[in-house]
Design brief:
2 copies of one chain form a homodimer.
Chain A lengths: L8 H15 L6 H8 L3 H7 L3 H24 L6 H22 L1 H13 L1 H24 L8 H11 L1 H4 L12 H14 L8
Helix pairs in contact in A: 1-2, 1-4, 2-3, 4-5, 4-7, 5-6, 5-7, 5-10, 6-7, 7-8
Chain A binds a DNA duplex (30 and 30 nucleotides) through helix 3.
DNA sequence: CAAGTTACAAGTTTTGACATCTGTTACCAA
DNA sequence: TTGGTAACAGATGTCAAAACTTGTAACTTG
């Protein structure tokens, strides 16, 4: 009995996301996904070589949605780079906070998947670093930011704000003061600690 | 049959550490600790009110050893505050890296314990922040560091170096470039990103 | 009475038989 | 050939019974 509706990769990903939301990452099975789609689980294996590949694909889709939302901020040349940097750093944090609030189960699921399949996570970090590099290069171009190497500086800024962008700190993002802490780090990064040599 | 050697809290803590090293945090039982000491498990309960209290005590001892080593660096007034800050930040990282290298099992065990009994962890963070505040206050006093509020600035520096001090990032500390990354963050914190207003 | 013991209730973990899941293969239909 | 099925072996997960762990209490000894 062939399928009524043609099964495509996107439908599988959407169903997987729904199963993940309902069952959590540990209890979500390929059989569950297939049942939700009204097919046998072997049909899913025609589109994805393994359960791991399916999970990676679904994680990548989720991270890419986030990346695209951030890209809009990073590329908004109407906003001065210094302010855009601040907005972008806050948006990275706020986007993840929103995911936690909206759907903690799904967020936890993605957290586990992202940690397990590291190429997905490292690719995402590379995407974000690209956006950050663009903002910093814009600042260097208009003279508002000081840097020798926008890419290297982007890495440093990303490392210095790890508490506000790395999934390992998700528990601390519930704290109401977290946004203010990010602002403080942002300010110190901009201005520096060193006393002026000629006051 | 009373004990030959008098059982004291310190002996229990040392035995617990050994059991933790051998069995890991999930499988280490109070009975194991008592057996290693040649007593019944009820004897251990004469010294510690609960298993949780025993675990906290052993974790606290471990963290305090670290704290004391760092305190020597933080209080070394022979070293200029700016340099002392750099040395201290590296020492926080290096101390934990050394623990991982020496005894990964025990480190993982302590990581789990510290995460579970959060008052132990928050107390330790408060200790470290106290040391960092002292360094920054010294810098403010001799004019080498710029700050309105040494305690607030210490918090910001600690947050900005979370990748190099927070246990959640332990896996990344294996990376050989991690020390260089810390140096880059340290440099950016000192100097700032902003272009000088009057060049 | 200080420092330990044995004995035990309540809760938690291990065990081992059973069920489910993953991934593959051989097959079917448009 | 593309898109599906059914049946299967081996790995993994589940569940109830048995074993162990925690924490307490009543007891023993110098």
């Amino acid at each position: 009995m062939p399928a009524r509706t043609p099964l495509d990769a996107n439908a599988i990903l959407a169903a997987t996301e729904e199963i993940l939301r309902r069952h959590g990452p540990d209890k979500a099975t390929v059989v569950d996904v297939a049942r939700a789609l009204g097919v046998s689980h072997a049909a899913v294996y025609k589109h994805f070589p393994s359960k791991q590949a399916l999970r990676e694909a679904v994680t990548r889709r989720w991270l890419d949605r986030n990346r695209d939302a951030l890209a809009v901020i990073a590329a908004d040349s109407a906003v001065p780079p210094v302010q855009r940097l601040r907005t972008w750093l806050h948006a990275v944090l706020a986007g993840k906070q929103a995911k936690i609030r909206e759907d903690p189960e799904l967020f936890a699921a993605y957290g586990i998947l992202a940690a397990a399949h590291s190429s997905v996570a490292t690719d995402h970090v590379a995407d974000l670093l690209g956006q950050l590099t663009a903002i910093i290069a814009d600042g260097a171009a208009d003279g508002s930011l000081r840097t020798d190497d926008a890419e290297a500086t982007a890495r440093v800024v990303f490392n210095a704000t790890a508490k506000f962008n790395h999934l390992a700190h998700a528990a601390e993002w519930q704290n109401p003061g977290i946004g203010a802490e990010l602002d403080e780090v942002y300010s110190l990064l901009l201005e520096g600690l060193h006393a002026p040599t000629s006051p």
